[in-house]
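My current task is to audit a protein record that another person submitted. Thanks in advance; the entry in question is below:
***
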Amino acid sequence: MKMTGAQIVCESLVKEGVEVIFGILGGVLLPLYDTLPQYPQLRHILVRHEQGAAHAAEGYARATGKVGVCIATSGPGATNLVTGIADAYLDSTPMVAITGQVVRSLIGKDAFQEIDITGITLPITKHNYLVLETDSLAKTIKEAFYLARTGRTGPVLIDLPKDVQTDKAESNYPEKLVLPGYKPTLKGHPTQVKKAAKLINEAQKPVILAGQGITISGAYDELKQMAETAQIPVVTTLLGISCFPDSHILSYGWLGMHGMTYANLSISNADLIVAIGMRFDDRATGRVSGFAPNAKIIHIDLDPAEIGKNVRVDVPIVGDAKTVLKALNKLITKTEHIEWLEQIDDWRREYPSTQIRESEGILPQYVVRKIYEVTGGDAIIVTGVGQHQMWVAQHYWFDKPNSLITSGGLGTMGFELPAALGAKVGCPDRVVWSIAGDGGFQMTMQELGTIAQEKAAVKIAIMNNGFLGMVRQWQEMFYDKRYVATTLSCPDFVKIAEAYCIPGTTVRSKEEVVPAIEQAMNEPGPFVINFMVEPEENVYPMVPPGASLSEIVEEPKKGVKVWPQRNTP
């Protein structure tokens, strides 16, 4: 039976298990949107800006493990997706972006709202398609979802000319795909696995460095088995946070520029690093020449391009984290590293890193810790980028798998609000908090309209310090406190929320912090809290730019410390 291209698109999305689409329509997408009501199983969420659609699809994908779907019209609609697509690419988020395009006869003629979106997104997608034949639509969509969800997951773009949507063709959705040039390696090479096991069994000061690959592959149990069998301390990357329980006795925080001092020291003094599903980016390694100078490195990653790209590797293993760890765990013997663990515990006592000092004003890290206490750690936390992101990573303790969603590689301000919407849509029974800075919040706060329209019960905490905080911190520390273009005027966020019929409150004292969080938790719908925090609070510890992880700087002493560290002996 012949169908229109728009019907083929909808039929194909249903067959791929798509339930939610985040998007904004435009003229060249009218045929597709006119067809959507025929498919009530496809829920369309109308966002307020296309960047919000992409980030919402990311949040949905990250929270559920499914492929997120976003859609935008041609020209500016398509280019507004670019930031979200790039964010998904760098953080390996499975996503399919569908863009409208002018009719085929006008392509290349600078028609109204025409743009070469496949050319623009070529460097930031796993693959992209300009569909020129309606009868190739079904196969293209099948391929796009397969590429997005397999191998190193990531975004794929499909560009749809208007007349491809209206033309008719046979619906020939393929049951199987044949992609000869695309064969991700899932199993690690047996010889390399044996070499890795030998190094692990012989190591005296090993450290597991776990990244987001653990979460993507669902290798939580395999990671825990390896750590417990060989008694190896576990350090994570920023995106790896929540792949290993923070309360576990072998959990030693996360490494990098604002990671825990004891985590950085453990890496710097280890004789073996077992890196799993991470890419050794510069914020994690510090100065590469000083990274783990005494250690042999085992690197397990699905993407062969990442192995050896940034740091030397002694035993490379290309493969899926879960599959490789299952094979590796069969060869690992029970061992103990009592002296090594005691040494790291000594560093943790000497450099507490994440304890919070007393203060008269509201410290952002105090707010984060109180959100943790009120939620009991049972929430999905979504952040943007900057100081608030670092404070969340340091002071909210993550025991539940995949409970931190944040923008890592691209570092996208404004990611948090729409991504939290996507996470809540994907996990309606979970508590979802969006924690934002006042700068990033203003970049995508129009998505409050989407949250209100969808009645999505996202809880929103804004750390309002009147600055672009992280850049201001660098200006203070490295540019003699010359604050150029970082002082930020803000609207009344509570009034903005109320304009969208979302309740909220402004918190100006420490005594109000917990009641406000409890009020948000008791509210059946969304709620906004505007926390007026200390304006020039800095994030510590910190590895200065160009320094090695061992040269990390602790917070200058300013007062009495409160709250014990997690797991401190």
